[in-house]
Amino acid sequence: MKAEAFSEFVQRLKELDNIAIIGHENPDPDSLGSMVALFLGLRSLGRKVIMVSDDPIPYAFDWPTLQEIQPVTEAAPATTVIVLD
After folding, report:
1. Confidence of residue 1 (pLDDT cuts 50, 70, 90)
2. Taking the C-alpha atoms of 22, 65, 36 and 49 in order, what is their torsion angle to the nearest 10 degrees?
3. What is the pTM of this model?
4. Can you give the pLDDT at residue 44?
5. What's the alpha-carbon Rg for the chain, to the nearest Å?
């Protein structure tokens, strides 16, 4: 990705609020790590952001931030959804 395109992407992320981050089904460490990294980055920018999963998080993963992942059925509505793989 060219520097200009990346800068524009980051600027657009900074303008968003009320964001839901969703990974793929049957989450694995790669998917969960991507979700957590974007979640923490957006939160550090002051964005309102949640992580959502339709599948349970495997108990083998005991990362502190994973506790913030909400079941789809309990998540508040979001105006922007970012899907990561």
Report:
1. low
2. 60
3. 0.86
4. 93
5. 13
DSSP 60: T
In whole angstroms, give the CA distance from residue 79 to residue 67.
Answer: 22
The upper half-sphere exposure of residue 40, i.e. CA atoms within 13 Å in the direction of its Cβ, equals 8
Per DSSP, the three-state class of 84 is coil
Q: List, for residues 11-66, the tens digit of each pLDDT value.
A: 888 888 899 999 999 988 899 999 999 999 999 989 999 999 999 887 777 788 88
Please state the φ and ψ torsions of residue 49, each to the nearest 5 degrees: -145, 145
- Tokens found for residue 37: 């990294």
Q: How far apart are CA 23 and CA 52, in angstroms?
A: 8
What is the residue type of 71? P
Give residue 82's pLDDT. 94
Residue 5, classed as helix, strand or coil, is helix
